[in-house]
User: Fold this.
Amino acid sequence: MPISLLAVIATTVVLIDQWSKQYIQSQMLPGMSIPLVDGIFHITYVLNPGAAFGILENQRMLFIVIALVMLGLTGYFLKHIPEPFRLMRLGLSLLAGGAIGNVIDRVQTGHVVDFLDFRIWPVFNVADIAIVTGVGCVIYTLVFSTFPTENQENPR
Assistant:
């Protein structure tokens, strides 16, 4: 996967994330919940000033700095990850797109808009899905891939 395709993936994540958040904000008030599958899946508009599960509430600058450092590291590593490690490269682009989507919210308003509510898990958004999926891709690659040694040229 060339870097240009990875940039398109990250940009697509950001666009879908920001569009969905804007739509929720234009149609609902904070705290409103619309059951789609009653008791199982709701659209619930939440303003989250913290990280996952609401931890470190109101630490806006900390989250922005962490996201920017993570994005810088992602950009650096993407250039150095060999082409055959497509899943890792995909994972990093998903992670970057999700981080950008949530950092846009934090810069603009100091909180993240969450709205996907499965009732057994904290409310989340499209950027969160991309981040978790991206981390999963990276972990899978690290655990199950064979990495080249000095004598090997092509990883599998």
Observations:
- Residues 108 and 135 are 25 Å apart (CA to CA).
